[in-house]
Amino acid sequence: MSADHAAVQRTDFDQFMVPNYAPAAFIPVRGEGARVWDQDGRELIDFGGGIAVNCLGHAHPALVKALTEQAQKLWHVSNVFTNEPALRLARKLVEATFAERVFFCNSGAEANEAAFKLARRYAHDVHGAEKFEIISAVNSFHGRTIFTVNVGGQPKYSDGFGPRPEGISHVPYNDLAALEAAISEKTCAVVLEPIQGESGVLPADKAYLEGARRLCDQYGALLIFDEVQTGVGRTGELYAYQYFGVTPDILSSAKGLGGGFPIGAILTTSAIASHFGVGVHGTTYGGNPLGCAVGSAVLDVVNTPQVLAGIKSRHQRFKSELERIGQQYGLFEKVRGAGLLIGAVLAPAWKGRAKDIQQAAEQDGVLVLQAGPDVIRLAPSLVISDAEMTEGLGRFERAAARLAKS
């Protein structure tokens, strides 16, 4: 171990960091493709992808090139100016989607915050001050700001932070009758994840999203899709709204958009965007040249027929292998999701043990995620190689076999 690595240890987290995370016992220090190495040189296959962020794996040459080239030119100019990378990325997003306008920020929470603010501002300007209510889904996740955490339908994340913003309600996911009963002339927006990520990789029914679109049109509300986790090729389409064939009014994007570099965005129409006039909303770092240069390189790689088709074929392989492993060891009752956002739902005998399985997998050299206590989530690189898939699935099967015997 080099002196540099020896100088920083996992125990330093407990000594210096706010204790809001419980990180693994090892520290990753290097990555390449779908592999990472820790301080001791141990190699692990990464099926977690930084929680659906490292969409092109680690140290992808196109992203390294984009970042280093931009780093030698211009890092930050503030929003007193625009910059070339931001304009390039905005144009690419508009050309590839329903959107006519783009707003850049730094994270998914900021993207959702902007989406919710824009929806309320639009309703205020067009319909009046009474139309401000937001309907979201139970068990949804939209970020950690006071506003977004309360729009998210998980009280464990929103309790204990003082008074809640008013005008937010939650209905069961995939229940169109419940949404129809809740929506009214006061509703300014309905916010949905096309696939609920954090709470179990639960896809929406196409008919549910179509019904939500119809109800929003009927009541003059905006339909917002939170595509922070499902966007940028994750489902095998560039965005999940294209996978389901239902177009929102506002779409939030982050995670995979920067391939690991922090960037977020909202996509919307010109008519809606016009309500964010000069000074109405802003961000210091949003649209910074480094993030936008990387995001542009991400889109150039991901938004191609070959890569998108490859995501769908990789989905089939992961699904069939996980179903086989699940049946052989009595581990999973079903495997669901789309593209390379996959949820393996634990069988009744294993309920609540996702953390145990995650830790066992890590001991066998493969990184997987949880989506709640009952679902193992995979969100690997969209361009993960056959060899990396084979090796990682083999390691996961060894962990499953070992657990099943214990």
TrEMBL record:
Alphabetical list of PROSITE patterns matching this protein: AA_TRANSFER_CLASS_3 (PS00600)
Keywords: Amino-acid biosynthesis, Aminotransferase, Arginine biosynthesis, Cytoplasm, Pyridoxal phosphate, Transferase
SUPFAM superfamilies, alphabetized: PLP-dependent transferases
GO CC annotation, single: cytoplasm
GO biological process: one example: L-arginine biosynthetic process
Pfam families: Aminotran_3 (PF00202)
Highest taxon above the source species: Bacteria
Chief place where the protein resides: cytoplasm
EC number(s) per entry: 2.6.1.11
Subcellular location, record wording: Cytoplasm
Annotated binding of N(2)-acetyl-L-ornithine, by residue: R144, T283
Gene3D superfamilies linked: Aspartate Aminotransferase, domain 1 (3.90.1150.10), Type I PLP-dependent aspartate aminotransferase-like (Major domain) (3.40.640.10)
Catalyzed reactions: N(2)-acetyl-L-ornithine + 2-oxoglutarate = N-acetyl-L-glutamate 5-semialdehyde + L-glutamate
Cofactor(s) needed: pyridoxal 5'-phosphate
Cofactor binding comment, as recorded: Binds 1 pyridoxal phosphate per subunit.
Pathway assigned in UniProt: Amino-acid biosynthesis; L-arginine biosynthesis; N(2)-acetyl-L-ornithine from L-glutamate: step 4/4
GO molecular function term, any single one: N2-acetyl-L-ornithine:2-oxoglutarate 5-aminotransferase activity
Quaternary state and interactors: Homodimer.
Family: Belongs to the class-III pyridoxal-phosphate-dependent aminotransferase family. ArgD subfamily.
Stored HAMAP family: ArgD_aminotrans_3 (MF_01107)
Protein name: Acetylornithine aminotransferase
